[in-house]
Design brief:
FAD-dep_OxRdtase; EC 1.4.3.19; binds glycine; alpha/beta; 7 helices; flavin adenine dinucleotide binding; eight-stranded mixed β-sheet; single chain; about 375 residues; Gly_oxidase_ThiO; D-Amino Acid Oxidase, Chain A, domain 2; FAD/NAD-bd_sf
């Protein structure tokens, strides 16, 4: 049984755990990350839309503030990662077009537009013809849409790789094993025991294990984060040179109640996502899931059926009861949360890194993240 000590142990090496580790190391803390496969997790599947405006939902105006704070950080964040690692994360400011295919979709989009304007967001209503002028591959039946130039994209796989490299260069130690159990001594988190038996002692522990965050052994029941897996299936196509430019920006719509989006990358990849399924821990790619994605995407952009299909995959979003993340002190001294980012993990990566570095160095949640304290889910009477 081996023993090592750090100031901070981050349980989970997905993009949220990695950005926490990197930012904490930059503040002079000795940081370790426990994960069998750093840079894996939901970001391997995510399309990487930075869609604070087009993914706005009623009742989520508080989350909107955090999403916008993170979106505003992205240009500098991507540049800093490139400077630190030499790796490009595929940050692209080409914008997003949300379109309607029938009268119901159009009414829904009109309401979204009104909400966006009430929230002071930049979003322009376009007729169907204007949408097609912008994106000639759109179906002739498109009835109107919202042009949001401020909703960008990043490549989550490249982001994860850059964060692993940035952590390595900042002296973060990787333990390539799953954390099995939180170590708690006299009511304080003191590290974790890994599945290979190694004991990692740490002054503070951050639980950043995505959808698995509620499963770490040894965490007292009352502070376990209420995070559940929400399955998303995604299809990847490629756009041969002869078809380029196929789409110049991300295109999305609600079709038969489900969200479908097409995210074109500069390297010719076209990511089509995503299902949203409450299926527990199942990550099977199903014929039905792929069929629905391609059917809905085909209604939006009929030409996709000509494109080579390069990959299908499924991942688990870490859903929380209010669709917003849990950030900061958990109620158990020494244990912090950085989890529950649900549909916004990629978008919220920059602000999460800053917030968690503040928490780990000052013990306080900065103003931008106060509303996301895990205490909002604690049973009444438990401090
Ligand atoms: N934010 C996109 C998704 O979760 O599918």
């Amino acid at each position: 049984m081996s023993r090592s000590t750090s100031d901070v142990l981050v349980v989970g090496g997905g993009i949220i755990g990695l950005v926490t580790a990197w930012r904490a190391a930059q503040r002079g803390l000795r940081v370790a990350v426990a994960d069998p496969e750093p840079g894996g997790g939901a970001a391997r599947v995510a399309a990487g839309m930075l869609a604070a405006v087009t993914e706005l939902h009623y009742g989520e105006e508080t989350l909107l503030g955090l999403n916008l704070a993170s979106a505003a950080r992205y240009p500098d964040f991507a540049a800093e990662l490139r400077e630190a690692t030499g790796l490009d994360v595929g940050f692209r400011t080409s914008g997003t077009l949300a379109v309607a295919l029938d009268a119901d979709d159009r009414a829904h989009l009109r309401e979204l537009h009104a909400l966006q304007l009430r929230c002071g967001l930049a979003s322009e209503w376009l007729t169907g013809r204007e949408c097609r002028r912008l994106e000639p591959m759109l179906a002739p039946g498109v009835r109107g849409g919202l042009r949001v130039d401020g909703d960008h994209q990043v490549d989550p796989r490249r982001l994860a790789a850059a964060l692993v490299a940035a952590c390595e260069r900042s002296g973060v130690v990787f333990h390539r094993a799953r954390a099995d159990r939180l170590a708690v001594v006299r009511g304080r988190a003191t590290g974790a025991v890994l599945e290979d038996g190694a004991e990692i002692a740490a002054g503070q522990v951050v639980l950043a294990a995505g959808s698995l965050s509620g499963r770490l052994g040894g965490v007292p029941e009352e502070v376990l984060p209420p995070v559940r897996p929400v399955k998303g299936q995604v299809v990847r196509l490629s756009v041969p040179g002869a078809y380029a430019p196929f789409l110049s920006r991300s295109v999305r719509a609600v079709v038969r109640g489900g969200h479908v989006y097409l995210v074109p990358r500069e390297n010719g990849e076209l990511v089509v996502g995503a299902t949203s399924e409450e299926m527990g821990w199942d990550t099977t790619v199903t014929a039905g899931g792929v069929y629905e994605l391609l059917r809905d995407a085909h209604e939006l952009v009929p030409g996709i059926t000509e494109l080579p299909l390069t990959e299908t995959c499924a991942g688990l979003r870490p859903g929380s009861p209010d669709n917003a993340p849990l950030l900061g002190p958990s109620g158990l001294p020494g244990l912090h949360m950085a989890t529950g980012h649900y549909r916004n993990g990629v978008l919220l990566t920059p602000v999460t890194g800053d917030v968690m570095a503040d928490v780990l160095t000052t013990g306080e949640l900065p103003e931008v993240a106060r509303a996301f304290t895990p205490a909002r889910f604690r049973p009444v009477g438990v401090s």
